[in-house]
Design goal:
By secondary structure, the chain is an all-alpha fold.
Length: about 200
């Protein structure tokens, strides 16, 4: 005996509901497996502003390396590094940061920047040349941009200090894992954030 129209509709609705239930979790599964654009992890909202600023500072390492390559200058610049750290130590109070915390964080940024510079110059040395492109002026363009980022980094670090993360090391590792496809940048980011989760 064929089912009545009501019974057929009920069975159809039940099948549709089952399909809907089966399909709904897929975006979550895809986000977990693929880290698709638009899929955020729990670590991103709190860490993103600071890591964005760290990344912007690292982006400048390429242009700094070009300048040093073109002018046969060493990567190490101790006088400039000391100048940066002294300014950070003075400015830390304005952002409610302990001077020791701020200078340790910036020392890590300097070392991370040098990791990229060394890595790039090593590549160019092996090739016998750097990639073509206009060099940016270190004194009039790059260092002023680095100085501007100093304020941004101190501001975002102070925000993070006021609202400490739960399970900071795990959240930071999850955030940095997104850059694992670029080993040089990933290594530099690890160095730049080496003391970010250190309790003081």
């Amino acid at each position: 005996m064929l089912p009545t129209s009501n019974a057929f509709q009920s069975a159809h609705n039940q099948t549709s509901n089952n399909k809907e239930i089966a399909v709904r979790p897929m975006p979550i599964v895809l986000c977990f497996i693929l880290t698709l654009p638009g899929c955020s992890t729990s670590s991103q909202p709190e860490l993103k502003p600071l890591l964005d600023a760290v990344g912007q500072r690292l982006d400048l390492a390429y242009s700094v390396a070009v300048h040093k390559w073109d002018n046969d200058l060493p990567v190490e610049a101790p006088a400039r590094e000391q100048e940066v750290l002294q300014r950070v130590q003075i400015a830390a109070h304005d952002y409610g940061l302990p001077a020791e915390r701020a200078t340790a964080f910036f020392a890590d940024q300097i070392e991370a920047n040098k990791i990229i510079q060394y890595g790039l110059i090593e590549r160019w040395t092996a090739l016998g040349q750097r990639p073509s492109g206009q060099a940016r002026n270190l004194a009039t363009e790059l260092r002023p941009r680095l100085d501007t980022l100093q304020s941004t980094l101190l501001f975002e670090l102070s925000n993070l200090e006021r609202k400490p993360l739960n399970d900071c090391p795990r959240q930071l590792a999850n955030a940095l894992a997104q850059h694992a496809s670029d080993p040089l940048r990933h290594t530099a980011l690890l160095r730049a954030t080496a003391q970010l989760c250190v309790k003081r």
